[in-house]
Specification:
This protein has helices at residues 2-6, 10-32, 35-52, 63-81, 101-119, 123-134, 139-146, 150-171. With 172 residues, it is mostly helical. The model is unreliable at 83-99 (pLDDT under 50).
Length: 172
């Protein structure tokens, strides 16, 4: 599809848009925590991707990496323009239990603790966690998106997880 889109096939780009819009939107939303802003940036991502198609080269990475990189850069640009940004993480979701009321309360408390601990991450670490565990990306793909070496990304993610685990164990 990317090859056809690069050759000027608008229908191919439309299919790319349909395939990736939800994922790109979700990634952006995780970072900005605002539906309208996430939608605007997602739209801008595809406009920029369409304009940049002539410069896209498969050897530099997959098309999804190309899109995520554009989205990430737009988020960074947007955050530079804003003085403050809410880092409240509403994406973990509610855990549904069939158990009794006490179990339900314990689950809600654990979920709140997870939100708080994830919310304590700095912007870059939050991006890494979102890309790895919510977007299910490989370390190689993440490295291309954030412009770091794959090994460095792998080590950083493992350190983040270790710190998150320690914080959660201390909180729960």
């Amino acid at each position: 599809l990317a090859k056809r889109a690069k050759a000027g096939d608008k229908d191919a780009f439309g299919k790319i848009y349909n395939l990736f819009l939800e994922k790109i939107y979700r990634f952006i939303y995780y970072l900005v925590n605002d539906e309208d802003t996430a939608y605007d940036i997602a739209q801008d991502t595809f406009v920029r991707a369409y304009r940049a198609l002539p410069r896209y080269e498969r050897k530099r990475g997959s098309f999804s990496t190309f899109l995520y990189t554009i989205a990430r850069n737009l988020v960074i640009d947007k955050q530079r323009k804003r003085v403050s940004l809410s880092l409240d993480l509403n994406f973990v979701g509610e855990v549904k239990y069939e158990g009794d009321f006490e179990e339900s309360i314990d689950s809600a408390e654990r979920s709140k603790k997870v939100h708080e601990v994830l919310g304590s991450l700095d912007k870059f670490d939050k991006e890494l966690v979102v890309l790895r565990y919510f977007e299910d990306m490989s370390f190689k793909g993440i490295a291309k998106i954030v412009g770091k070496e794959e090994g460095a990304v792998r080590v950083r993610v493992f350190r983040i997880l270790k710190n998150l685990k320690e914080k959660l164990e201390g909180e729960i």
